[in-house]
């Protein structure tokens, strides 16, 4: 496959997400792209594991966007946080966030981030899965309260923002790619682009 070395040779790119976090991450690769939010049913299937759910939903998101933009490279992602073998949702309220962080104190939370990319030239889907372990410190009540009031991460699974003050809650993070925890595994995405013949970074 001939390598694409400049942006003028590139197919249009669509990020299948309305997330500002994923938008900011993809901007790191200095590629031109647009955003389109896929409308899919994200209800877990009966007996479905978090891993299987993330792989299925990231693929469904990519497929939904590819139907609207068949000539575009489509990038889609989905993420699930798991504690004690159970999926963790967004807290939405201060009270729920306090309860989540109290449970996590001194323990680890796993974040599974699925990635699906549609190649319009080869008419092929690529998929990958990143696993990130977040190890929490022993959290005092004052630490939890101060953090939540400062950052208000009520729409974030796990009740924290790792790119912000959430880092003060951690003992360590085990990951191949710190971007994955925020929502988009850029290292794996770069590798998929390379398989598609797109060698990053591209020239203008």
CATH architecture, by name, is Alpha-Beta Complex
Largest sheet descriptor: 7 strands, mixed
Could you tell me the radius of gyration in angstroms? 18 Å
Percentage of helical residues? 25-40%
Report the mean per-residue pLDDT as an integer: 95
Helix/strand structural class: alpha/beta
Taken in chain order, the helices and strands follow as EEHEHEEHEEHEHHE
Number of domains: 1
Compute the number of strand runs: 9
From the spread of the alpha carbons, the general shape counts as: elongated
CATH fold field value = Maf protein
Number of helices: 6
Which CATH top level class fits? Alpha Beta
End-to-end Cα distance: 21 Å
Strand content: 25-35%
Instruction: List low-pLDDT spans.
Output: none
For this entry, give a set of tags:
alpha/beta, Maf protein, seven-stranded mixed sheet, two-stranded parallel ribbon, 28% strand
What does this structure look like?
- With 204 residues, this protein is α/β, with parallel strands linked by helices.
- It has a single domain (4-198), classed as Maf protein (Alpha-Beta Complex), CATH 3.90.950.10.
- It is built from 6 helices and 9 strands, in the order ββαβαββαββαβααβ.
- The protein has helices spanning 20-27, 50-68, 94-104, 141-151, 178-182, 186-195; strands spanning 4-6, 13-15, 34-35, 73-83, 86-88, 108-119, 124-136, 170-174, 198-203.
- The strands form 2 sheets. Strands 2, 3, 4, 5, 6, 7 and 8 form a 7-stranded mixed beta sheet that branches. Strands 1-9 form a two-stranded parallel ribbon.
- The longest helix has 19 residues, at 50-68.
- The protein is elongated, with a radius of gyration of 18 Å.
